[in-house]
């Protein structure tokens, strides 16, 4: 067997780090930062404890990279999504629906995003990272899309930055509500047909309330 090439070794390294980060999301979603353990993350990833420490020297290093990776992915998706040349109301409506459906299909990822803000003081000093600056950058593509749509007369005119903040606030609170609702229904052993109906109704309500301010008049 011929030795692996440098490129193959790099691909293996990237894959191992992806596996560790994905496991860390699941552990964090269940336990939060303080109770998350490097050994359990290694077990969830199906890797040895020593290998996890080879890639990440401690829990703080791991979760900093996880947080920055997740933020980067969210920012890229949002920026790309709102660059689409489509009517704004439908664009925001579909975005809200995609995120809410994501909560129900794979709750660990949105649960991570919703909870990590409470643990940032474990990862960064105030000088190292500003969540407010990140939020401003994240909301910028939404504000830009709102501003353009208002100029075209598609949606009501107003402060685009404020409208983007109100939209995102409604979506994120709705995602949190749907996540908790799904957990409660599962804990109660709700029959599948009733469970699906109630979640669909709640999801539709979250979507419609999120875009209410953007509805064409």
Which secondary structure elements does this structure contain, and how are they paired or packed?
Blueprint: H1 6-35, H2 38-45, H3 49-55, H4 59-81, H5 88-105, H6 108-116, H7 120-123, H8 131-151, H9 160-187, H10 192-210
Descriptive notes:
This protein has 217 residues and is mainly α. It folds into two domains: 1-57, Arc Repressor Mutant, subunit A (Orthogonal Bundle); 60-214, Orthogonal Bundle (Tetracycline Repressor, domain 2). It is built from ten helices and no strands. It has helices at residues 6-35, 38-45, 49-55, 59-81, 88-105, 108-116, 120-123, 131-151, 160-187, 192-210. It is globular, with a radius of gyration of 20 Å.
What is the strand content?
A: under 5%
Supply the helix-strand structural class. Answer: mainly alpha
CATH topology of the largest domain: Tetracycline Repressor, domain 2
> Number of helix segments?
10
CATH hierarchy, class of the largest domain: Mainly Alpha
Can you write the helix and strand succession as a string? HHHHHHHHHH
Total number of beta strands: 0
**Whole-Å distance between the termini?**
69 Å
Strand count, sense and closure of the main sheet?
none
- Shape descriptor reads globular
Point out poorly predicted stretches.
none
Rg over CA atoms: 20 Å
* CATH architectural type of the largest domain: Orthogonal Bundle
Helix content: over 70%
User: What is the count of distinct domains?
Assistant: 2
Average predicted confidence as pLDDT = 92
